[in-house]
Structure formats: structure tokens, C-alpha cells
Amino acid sequence: MIELRSPAEINEMKAAGEFVASVLTATQAATKVGTNLLEIDALAHSMIRERGAESCYIDYHPSFGASPFGKVICTSVNDAALHGLPHDYTLKDGDLVSLDFAVAVDGWVADSAITFAVGTPRDEDLKLMDATSRALDAGIAAAIVGNRIGAISAAIGDVAYGAGYEVNLDFGGHGVGREMHGDPHIPNDGKARRGMPLKPGLVFAIEPWLMIGTDDIYTDDDGWTLRSVDGSRAAHFEHTVAVTADGPLILTARK
Q: The whole model's pTM is what?
């Protein structure tokens, strides 16, 4: 079921968005060459406890996951595109890291993701991150009253294909509210005049993710991490966005 949030409810959701943004800012700052992925998860977990927030991941067990996730942040490295399960891995110079984080604060959920290079970035990674980030910006810009869901998808796809990347449609954006994942589903490519009309009060996560050489993925032996089939690197950017009469409102904007 798709729910429209009142201006007062959207205002209440800002606390979750601000907290998610603060955790991603802190974890990115703490992530360097020599950092272990379990240290990133521990920092995020500590911040959740201090804030009195509730992790959306630790007990999360959808049909595509082998077991409850068991950690509080996704750490996807290099060829890992999505749902990277934190494990005992120490980051090396040039690693490409995506952090995806969602929590509930006072019953409202926010969800966001960032990608960055650790140490010295590769040129192809910079190009990939730029395209994925621009795709997110384009999707957000299309989240206006009068457009349809397909306008967001088409805007993302136009940037991705224009930069020379293929697009996977298995995972994409989604409704956000009292739960982490809800309707509507927002694919990362589509037709601008398709899908439900965008109305004030819709709140969803927009999340383009791209891989350098393929649009195919497989599930790692850990039962969670989704990797590119050819070993090429991936990037993932995401914001929780509210549709308002005044335009898109990014609830997870980082300062």
C-alpha cells in the first residue's frame, strides 16, 4: 500500500534522515586504508545505541537473504554492488567502498548510501562515481508533482546510458515510511510517462547503482553480498526524498 505523508509527518521524518546522514558522514571519515569492515559496523552500531535508534538491518531477513543480516550497515567493496555483509576484511589503497545505512528514529525510517575511494582512486572509479551520483541528482530533480514515477526512472537511466553503463533492474528505489521497504518500486530505468502520478506526501528512497562492465550480479557465498558477474567495480548512491508542493525534499542530505 502506498501512503501519503502529511507535512507534519514529513517534518517528523527529518530526524531519521539527519541521523542517517550523520552516521554516513562519520563512517566515511573513519574509513581509511587499514580500516576493517567490522570497525565500520561497530562505529555505526555505537552511534545507533547512543541515539536510541533502531537498526533496520540487523534482524532483516527478506526472501533474497540467506539469514538475518546480523549487522547494522552494508559495506560493499570493489565488485560488491549491494548488500555487502561486513566481515573481517582490511581495506587497501584504491579500494572502492559503498556504505548503505537505514534506521528508524521515533518510528520513522530513513535510508541512504554513498560510495567513495579509499586512498588513491582509480580514474575509472571516479568516472563511475560521478555518473552514479549524477544519476541520483537527476532522479531527485524529476521527483516533482505532475511527473510520474517513470520520470524518475527515465532520468536515472538517461544519465547511466549516456555515461556508457548498463542498468540492472532487479533492485532499485522503494517507498520509505514506518518500514524500510515499501511501495512504490522505482526501477533505475523506465519511461517518463509510465507509473503512478507523483503527489505531495510521497516519500521514497531513490538509489541508482552501476557497475563498470556489466549489469549482471550474483550472490556471494555469505548469502547477502551481491557482486558483479565479471568482477568489475560498482557504485551506489541513495537518498530518502519527500515529494512536496515546493519540490523534492532530500531528508538524508549530508552537511
A: 0.97
